[in-house]
Amino acid sequence: MEKRCELKDPSVLENFEIDLIEGKLVARKTGEMPEEAFAYVVKTADRFNKFKVAGYYKGARSVSFFAPPLPSKAGKRELVYRLRRVYLRERIPAAATLGLTYACQLDCYHCSAQLSKNPDKHWLTTDQWKKIIYDTVEMGCTNIIYTGGEPLVRKDIFELVEFVDKDKATVLMFSNGELHSEENLKRLKDAGIYAIFISLDSPYEEEHDYLRKRPGLYKKVMKSVETCKKLDIMVGFSSYITHERYQKGELKDLMELGKNTGVCEIVLFDAVPTGAFMRKTDILLTAEDKEGIMRDTLDYFKKPGYPTLTAQAYVNSPISMGCFAAYNQYYMTAYGEMTPCDFTPISFGNAVEEGTRTVWERMTNHPAYKKRHQMCRMQTPEFRQKYIDRIPDGSILPYPIKLLDESEMPAVGCK
Hints:
This protein is an alpha/beta fold. It has helices spanning 35-50, 73-87, 113-116, 126-138, 157-163, 182-191, 205-212, 217-230, 243-247, 250-261, 287-302, 312-315, 351-354, 356-364, 381-386, 401-406; strands at residues 16-21, 24-29, 55-57, 60-62, 95-99, 143-147, 170-175, 195-199, 234-241, 265-270, 308-311, 329-332, 338-339, 346-347, 399-400. Strand 3 and strand 4 form a beta hairpin. Helix 5 runs parallel beside helix 6. The longest helix has 16 residues, at 35-50.
């Protein structure tokens, strides 16, 4: 991407504020600022005004759990770093998904945690995570995402939520919902949690509990939603869609459930062949499925009463933002291994051993990630053949990129 203007002093990109006036975001200058840059801020505010409001966090307007609310200090910071990406061509992580632990009280059919457990390594300590979180936020990250395993299994989870400087970044959590007692949710709120996505594998109670191998879990998820709403915590569902499930109409039923329960947002991931399903490319959505999901996303955007639908098929498409992996996000395992995203089982190094910034720069300068890709790489045959299909069966994941770059291993067959 070419620079849109030359800047002698990058701090001028901070000379604006966003106000909320009669429910609308309004941008204003507070000092000298390039006209092109301010026009970008105004355009972004206008675009957000057209989005559905997912909810409010401390009086600020949220259009998605994946972006800080506006107006807020973290929200302005996110816009400043957007400008830095555009005008200074800086590669800055906007989001960091941190797999705090592989421990979980469930044993789901599709879980990939067992493939990542390494008996020769220890999960990161509280202090190690704090160092990584601090460094990541200082790099410019504005969305810290906690996942697992199950984050609430960690006794220090409330401390880790509280540790993030809320003037610089928000804290989002993915959770299975079983440990959402009112006490735990109150502690998360007091620690400053921004929002919670609860995993929902199916809108149908029996199927969800079957896939999670936990009778009664669906009811606990619904109870958690009610408690979150009671405590004024933004809450949503996290789910995924396969070709078969889409053809059966599960997206429609999921959105109806979201409307009836009053959740703020539903994130719908594509079924991606990774982890335990790394060789099962038959679960991929077809081009027709994705086109249908994109149409559905736009339709639900217009329908009042429905939650915000953040569908990977739309967001990571060429008509939207393309692939986020190693462009403006990274994933980190419970051992500190950094990968381009949650789905990509390739490690570019260990942040504890080398430093988060060092591994980030190695990853973003690698030939596979130096340029932005128009769609999810993990769903691209060329990428999978060059990297994923050559990961030996039985390997502990993520697999080191160094071994893939140095070797001429043949591809492993897919089905």
